[in-house]
Predict the structure.
Amino acid sequence: MIHAAVEILLAEDNPSDVELTLRTLKRSNLLNTVHVARDGEEALDFLFCRGPHAGRDFAAPKVVLLDLKLPKVDGIEVLEAIRADERTRLLPVVILTSSREQADVTSSYKLGVNSYIQKPVDFEQFQETIRQLGLYWLVVNQPPSEG
Amino acid sequence: MLVSAAALVLASGAFTAYTWLTFRAAMVEQLSVQARIIAFNSASALLFNDPVSAQKTLGALGASPSIVDAAIYDNGGGVFARYWRGRKSLIKAFPQISKSQTEAHWYTHGELSLARRIEPQGKPLGVVLIRCELGELTTRLEGYAAITAAVLAACLGAAVLISAGVHRSVSVPVIRLAETARLVSRDKNYSLRAAATGSRDELDFLIQSFNGMLEEIQQRDASLQKAHDELERRVEERTGLLHAANKELEAFSYSVSHDLRAPLRHISGFSKILAEENRDQLNADGRHYLARIEEGARNMGRLVDDLLSMGRISRQEVVRRPADLNLLWQEAWERLQPEFEGRKIEWRIGALPAAECDPGLIKLVFTNLLSNAVKYTRRRECAVIEAGQITVDGEDVIFVRDNGAGFDQKYAHKLFGVFQRLHREEDFEGAGVGLATVQRIIHKHGGRIWAEGKVECGAAFFFTLVPRKPSRPKPANSVSS
């Protein structure tokens, strides 16, 4: 199987959010590098080339956009697993969530998240946030060198 | 015991002394009588110089065993006749009697001597002297003393016996009763009982009453303890329920925070997309509806945010520290400045006090009150907003007043309810959360908040930051609960 290098891993269970996010990324010309995982387990399987993604060669994306409330394995657990693995220890992870609970923000930063973004209710703000996120992490930010 | 012994000893002493004195007086009297008899009987013997006859007269004294010796002297002081018993008479020289007296007596070496002039018809013939030993007196006194001592000992013995009896039947139970009372009061142990005497007297009645009282106290104590335990248990139970409710509330607000936002975003998002991509297919009505959908979503988003922030404030602990309220007001004012920029507002801000409060929360109070004042004076050509401190019934009260739309005083109690609004949304926007939040913050400080208003004349909000000292009348329109 030949994959274009995945630059964004989007872990999001809500189809509407997936659709709105993908539309925004597409408008920002960033769509072709996105992989969507619909729950935490799938996100980890994809990242670590397990289960349905066993055949994939390990390649870390440039950034993981992670929802907190995910089926099976929630966002915090996914973040923990990412930080616990040597290969993804330095991988930029951005929490992208509806929650603005201080407890969530605190525990995310304690686990070494790179950024915590609350999805704005207003769609225009949402679009702007996603656009800036994509641009920042894919274009502006210098990722850690592999190895 | 000691007192009765002393009394007894004194009494016997007095009795003995009295006996001694009367006995001596009786002896003197007895001797005097004998001396008179002898004087009378020996007068003729002296007159006729008949010593034998006088000797005989004196011999009659042999009948009295205590008389040791006796003598009759003539006027010249010579011994005319004498009598003695046993040993040789020790009678010495002629006894001297003072001129005014006819008789005299004196004591020497355990003996009593009595001398009497012999002077029939006033003619002095001689003197008779009789001596008697006081041995009898001593013997009798000794006898009396022995009896007194025996009586004294018997009395003391009786007293000791009676006292021991009293001690056993009265003192011991009273002491035990006192000891029981002391233990009860010291240890608060109401199960103790004083020992009954079983004698069915007043003391026993007292002990029974005391025990009855203890019984009553013990029962009350037990029921009080039971009530207390029950209360404790209930408090624990309620606290548990409260904790559970709090947990539930937290879970609820988390879920609201997370889950309610997403559909709003989707409504807002897709209606936006629809407006963008299918604008040409929509007529004016369609576009209007879409705009209303978006507005509805936005409003709901704000509502959710306000509710969540109020919930957060409710759960937040008040951390008091000294704060300058002027500074907090200033910060709130600066934060709201964009809202009233370009408007004509007359600010009448008096000096605010320093207070022990949670500065973050009180700043939020000022922000909400100020924001309301700014909002409801929007239609005034010249808005007037006041803030300051007044003293009401000795309490420091902080107020914020405006000359805006005001409200009807009869609805004042509804002002602070969540989602309660006294104005139409199209007149003045708002969710009805601001004042509810303000009230919660004030109540969490232990203070009170109330409002006064008049339609189209303005509104005033008053609050205190510390619990009211007791026994002060409450303002009639207080809204604090």
